[in-house]
Structure formats: structure tokens, C-alpha cells
Design goal:
33% helix, alpha/beta, 6-stranded mixed sheet, 5-stranded mixed sheet, 11 helices, Purple Acid Phosphatase, chain A, domain 2
Length: 343
């Protein structure tokens, strides 16, 4: 009886748990039926390719909006880089995506989502948690302290650990943009070289992992991240020696684009399905493991010389190319001037 009262008191004083059940993008609430079964969609990088300058989400997302709306999934979890340029893209996203999406969506912000306080002014807090049945869903901001989870975010995880200690939680689902967990495991260290990384290091191993291990004593723990650069697939999964499962998944406006569906049954058991957005044949989710990635990371498709004009055009229209060109021109002129002066 005391354990139940303790659990109720924690819920009562946890404002994040109550206030974040409605999507900040379309105000829709998360609804599940009385069966105890539910499912949801998880993916990252909804803006697609970095060369997508339309101000719209990836074409694969927009092409499957009807599928998302007509599915039985109760919500959509975006794992960051929802926008390419949050300072300019919000109006077009609201018109083409948010207003037409009939599922609640939540986002674990990435570097492209944050410029000043624009995101926060439009969509509220960047870290929070809520409960569905006996599961806790946690959205983190891994941009706030360069990949470390400190202060309020650390306290939030400590609070969730206390809730799980009561023994009434089946699953803890954690969502972040960065794969801040990868550096902790030597076998993963070289798999995510193109991802957003901490400049120095983060506090995952020292401060966060111990909390996850304690949560795992009473509940299953799943950590999803959405920063995938030059990836061989839209999925990666890894379970450590503590049976904490780490998952990376994202689309990029590429033929490999696919999303993950997470199914939770009334007993709290979790299973995964994959959905291709380009009709490609997919492996079983469990096959996108360390072995698969080690075999396929860095492999490029055969070069199509007919695409050379397209690549040239994309580079010439990309502001980054001209920034680099201008900087190199200035440096070259400076050294030319120095040489002429000393001649």
C-alpha cells in the first residue's frame, strides 16, 4: 500500500507528466483504447536531405502522410532535425504537414531545430515526459549542453528512476537526437562518425547510464536517437550487457527511407516493425545490428556518371560551397599579397 501511495505522490508532483500529453504541433492528445495495446511511429531527420531547400519536410514524409493518418498508431515521435532551418520553415510546415497530420507528434530537438528561442517560443519546452498505460515516454534535448544531460534534465531522469523503483512501470522509452550513448561502447565507437557529436565529451557514461541501470531493474529501457548521417540503412539496434536497448533511426530523403513502428501489448511486451517509404525490401529489424553496420558502413552505390550535371548544379546552388569558396579566395589573396610584399 505504501508503494502505491508513493507512486501516486510522484505522479501528482510531476507537472511534466500531465502537461505534455498534447502535441505542441497540432494540439492533438495521445489517445489509446481500453485494450492496453498501442503502437507508435518513430523516426528522425524529417527534413530529409541537407540539400532539401524547399522549406518543406522530406518528400517521403509528405508522400506517406495519408498512410500515417490512416494507420492505427497513436502518435508520431520525431527524433530531431524536424526542420532544416527553423527560423524560416515553420509556416510551410504548418501548412503542409502539421495542419494535415491527424496524429499527435512530439520532437526530440536536433541542431537544425534550434536558433535562438524560435522553437521554444512556438512549441514550448524541449524536454519533458508523459505516461501511456504503464509506460513512460521521455523526450530529451541533447543540444542544450552539447550532449550532456545536466541540471533539470538530469533531475527529470532521476525522478523517472524513482517512479520506476515503485515497480509499476513496464517500459521506459527515451528519445533524443544525438546518439550520446555510442561512445560508451567500444564496438559502436566508429559506427556514427557522421552524426552530430559532442565537441569534447558528455556525461552519459558517468551520470546517465547509472540511472538507466537502476530503471532496468524494474522496467525495460529503450533509447531511440535520430542523428544518422552516412548510414547504410534507416535502422540500427544494439542491446548492451544490462539489456538496455539502443536504437537509431532516421530518414534522409533517400531510397533507404523507412520508419520504425513500436508495438506495445497489454502485458507491456514490446515488438518492432519496419515500414519502407520507397517500397524497398527490408530486413527484419533485429538484423540491423553491429555486424550489419560494420559490413556496410561507408559502402557507396555504383556511381552514375549521368548525374554529374545534377551534382554540379547542387553544389553551385548550395550556399556552403560559396562560403568555402569565398574563404579560400580571401586566404589565397592574403598569401599572394604577403608574397608580393616580401618580394
Amino acid at each position: 500500500m505504501i508503494k502505491y501511495l508513493f507512486y501516486i505522490l510522484i505522479l501528482f508532483y510531476s507537472s511534466e507528466l500531465i502537461s505534455q500529453q498534447n502535441s505542441p504541433f497540432n494540439t492533438m492528445p495521445v489517445k489509446v483504447d481500453s485494450s492496453g495495446n498501442y503502437s507508435f511511429i518513430v523516426s528522425g531527420h524529417f527534413h530529409g536531405s541537407s540539400s532539401n531547400l524547399t522549406g518543406l519536410p522530406s518528400n517521403t514524409i509528405l508522400a506517406h502522410l495519408d498512410w500515417i493518418n490512416n494507420s492505427d498508431n497513436c502518435m508520431v515521435i520525431s527524433l530531431g532535425d524536424l526542420f532544416l532551418d527553423v527560423s524560416n520553415d515553420i509556416p510551410q510546415y504548418e501548412e503542409s504537414f502539421f495542419s494535415k497530420l491527424n496524429k499527435p507528434m512530439f520532437n526530440a530537438v536536433g541542431n537544425h531545430d534550434l536558433t535562438g528561442d524560435i522553437y521554444q517560443d512556438n512549441f514550448g519546452k524541449t524536454f519533458f515526459y508523459w505516461q501511456i498505460n504503464n509506460d513512460i515516454h521521455v523526450v530529451l534535448d541533447t543540444e542544450l549542453d552539447d550532449g550532456s544531460l545536466k541540471d533539470e534534465q538530469k533531475k527529470m531522469l532521476e525522478k523517472i528512476k524513482e517512479i520506476t523503483n515503485a515497480g509499476l512501470i513496464s517500459n521506459v522509452f527515451i528519445y533524443s537526437h544525438r546518439t550520446i550513448w555510442a561512445k560508451t561502447y567500444p564496438e559502436l565507437d566508429l559506427l556514427f562518425q557522421d552524426n552530430t557529436q559532442s565537441i569534447l565529451s558528455n556525461n552519459f557514461e558517468s551520470d546517465v547510464l547509472p540511472l538507466l541501470k537502476e530503471m532496468k531493474l524494474k522496467a525495460n529501457v529503450f533509447w531511440f536517437s535520430g542523428s544518422l548521417g552516412d548510414a547504410p540503412a534507416s535502422f540500427f539496434q544494439f542491446k548492451d550487457q544490462n539489456n538496455i536497448q539502443y536504437i537509431a533511426t532516421a530518414i534522409r530523403g533517400l531510397p533507404r527511407d523507412a520508419v520504425l513502428i513500436v508495438n506495445v501489448n497489454q502485458n507491456g511486451a514490446v515488438s518492432f516493425e519496419t515500414k519502407s517509404f520507397t517500397n524497398q525490401k527490408l530486413l527484419d529489424f533485429e538484423d540491423y545490428n553491429v555486424e550489419f553496420w560494420n559490413k556496410n558502413v561507408g559502402k557507396k552505390p555504383p556511381f552514375n556518371y549521368r548525374l554529374i550535371p545534377l551534382y554540379v548544379k547542387q553544389n553551385l546552388l548550395n550556399p556552403t560551397f560559396w562560403y568555402g569558396f569565398t574563404i579560400m579566395l580571401i586566404i589565397s589573396l592574403f598569401f599572394y599579397w604577403r608574397r608580393k610584399k616580401n618580394a
